[in-house]
Amino acid sequence: MQAKEEGGQPxxxxxxxxxxxxxxxxxxxxIPGKLTTSAATRDGTKRREVEARLDITRARxxxxxxxxxxxxxxxxxxxxxxxxxxxxxxxxxLVTGSFAAQAQKAGGTFVFLVQPEPPSLASYLxxxxxxxxxxxxxxxxxxxxxxxxxxxPALAESFEVSEDGKTVTxxxxxxxxxxxxxxxxxxxxxxxxxxxxxxVHPRGPNSFREVTAIETPDEHTAVFKLANPAPYMxxxxxxYESPMVPKHLLEGQDPRNADLANNPVGTGPFxxxxxxxxxxxxxxxxxxxxxxxxxxxxxxxxxFIPDASTRTAAMENGEVHYGAYGAIPNVDVVRLREMDHIxxxxxxxxxxxxxxxxxxxxxxxxFDKPEVRQAISMALDRQFLIDNIWFGYGKPATSALSTxxxxxxxxxxxMPNYPAKADVAAAKKILDDAGVAPDxxxxxxxxxxxxxxxxxxxxxxxxxxxxxLGDIGIKVELRYEDVPTxxxxxxxxxxxxxxxxxxxxxxxxxxxxxxxxxxxxxxQGTHFVNSSRYSNPKLDSLLAAGATEADATKRGAIYKDIQxxxxxxxxxxxxxxxQFLTVYNKKLKDHETSALGxxxxxxxxxxxx
Amino acid sequence: xxxSVKRLRYVLKRLLQALPIVLAIVVVNFFLLHxxxxxxxxxxxxxxxxxxxxxxxxxxxxxxxxxPLPVQLAIYLKNVLSFDLGYSFRHEMxxxxxxxxxxxxxxxxxxxxxxxxVGLGIVLGLIAAVGLNTWRDNLISVFALVTxxxxxxxVGLMMIVVFSLNLGWFPxxxxxxxxxxxxxxxxxWDIAHHLVLPTITLSLFYLALYTRLxxxxxxxxxxxxxxxxxxxxxVTERRIVFVHVLRNALLPVVTMAGVQVGALIGGSVIVxxxxxxxxxxxxxxxxxxxxxxxxxxxxxxxSALLVVAVNLVVDIVxxxxxxxxxxx
Lengths: 609, 328
Known about the structure:
Chain A is of the alpha+beta class and 609 residues long.
């Protein structure tokens, strides 16, 4: 549903910027029938059977989602609706035509950009981005997620949640083997979740915090016993978030020291072959892959090219086929997207849900006053940032939660203090009312603004903020350090006043948002948690309630309260919902088959050469 | 005493002298690097997205970062003296293996660059000096000035735009065609093909330097008394230039080349980054930002050894060029 939300937006940048209208229409129009069409034509009958089995279990969950999604679609911009109807016949021809004409071709080497070079391939230890690009092609999760964020079978052919929500039973695929030939069984699932993910994965202890035990009545059944219902857990079972790892290669040793980190052995469509440091990591087709006839590609190679301009040149030249997560900078994408052989998409990031923001030290002046934080939120022109620094790729933030959570009914509209365009007068008034008066030079407060050291865009954003906040009398100095220094300053030393950053909100607020606000998330020395040191007992109890509430409507109400509190207190000011860009060579087909996008397995991707 | 025995003794003596220097370099580097804020654990945990303080403490203990600095230094020195460069926790690999893996591409790029830069620099400098104040001299001087003043990364990117994107003669980046995975002679040819653009880019800067040095040195030597004497003896101009002046004029160029080997490792970071060349410079650069200090120290140590070795070679080349200089 979240993917739909992004893909079907009327104001989608590519569509606006002259991408052939039919393409945009096609995406919008195929959505309602997408599930059945794709299942039937792309995967053959086997998948459809599995789908059917799964349908029963997820019917209850998806019904509400789907309704919400349709609601949003029909509510979409009326202007574009007219055009939609005009192109309907044309698009319908395209839909049927495109599936019939494109028979997948097997073979070929797919080369994609991995930037920067990953420290290891241990996705069970680290959620580091570049690891996520490579490891999910080797390891698999229990579930995968389609582009509408519905769970689809992966290593689990089906799952069932008990009435009280405290027992989740996974039926595992039969005949799955690890790349070294050993069979994959429920013992691997138990070991992975209890001994690896719950213990050493950065987000695992949170995702699986309610899991008390996993029972394995037979080799193909894993029963998760939960202390409380954990609806978010079912969204955290992808190959990227919770990879299943081989028990026989990790048992009896510290997973953090295991050789598996550099020589991964999974069940996935591609096998690890070699990693030439500084050059590439090479994966070859898994001939014994359990999904018959897949994968199509013979080989997948991840290339490391440190220089952004060279990455662009390599993409232009056809030496690489695919670059995601900003591997090609926006400034170059603007040029590349005009080329016939190159495509650009913002799809494939719905599970990640990145939001840029400012964190404040709420314990010290001047940002201990909520009014000052409100004024800053009012004074920053979010649309300006998006249009001028991110080349139109992004969406102004309107609440503590991303609008992508509208699909699950958690996002609340109409929160105060979140204008898309700056309102300088209102910001000044807030400050005046709060008694933060300007001195002789017009300065009300001054502070250093730290910037996330992840590229030039953030520096430019900082320059803008310095000017914008100067307008309301907040004098800002910019600081841009290297990654370790910055991390230590923000999360270990708390030696900052305001910090520009971005967080992944992930597919559920429990996984990605709670860590920002909970009192229990003030964890000195831990990165990307509550560095604002904001503590509000009322909010804490709401967060706890939101985590365990199984009923979707009640859960939505809880999160509405949470967002109201946060919109007033603003320990963190969200700036905009980021849209990462995936740039690809149009020779590459079917690379967008899962919600995970670049963090997906690419089992069905193929090259039209 | 026999000449070659003498030379061997000289080499041994020099190596012995180098030992304390290298050790001093290690110690200084060690403290210098530890002055940087943050450590490898901060970076690892930061990239991972989130990690508990207990986990980070555990990692620090595992990496030996919880011990006081002097103890860490003592352990490191002990390891280095037993030829163990330690372990890179970021790459989960022994430092020696990492460094040696990347050393070959670095050496390849370095040797080809020095050969091209020194070779062509000598020829251009010679031409310029012989045709002093002619159009050749002017052309070469302007060329040297322009290439010296142009930033390396810009030259690299322009090379890619012209020769890879527009003409399609060379690949944009990398050391090998990784879609093909060549073997045998095909692979050698493939690597040579990939080596062309980085070598030219990196050479241009040094080429300018050697050209100017060679030209100045030739002119200086040409005004010496021995040239007048030779001319008075009736030696041909050709012989004067190529036998007398050239050999003498080469000495400063060779000295310069020796000094610059060390700089070449550092200076190649930009070229390695632009062309995605898997060399030591990039490795050092990444290691710095990851606070992978073991790896950095290993690279510095290797560079120090390299500079020592090259300077030794340069001294020996001196004695070959100019028999008056004796190794002793």
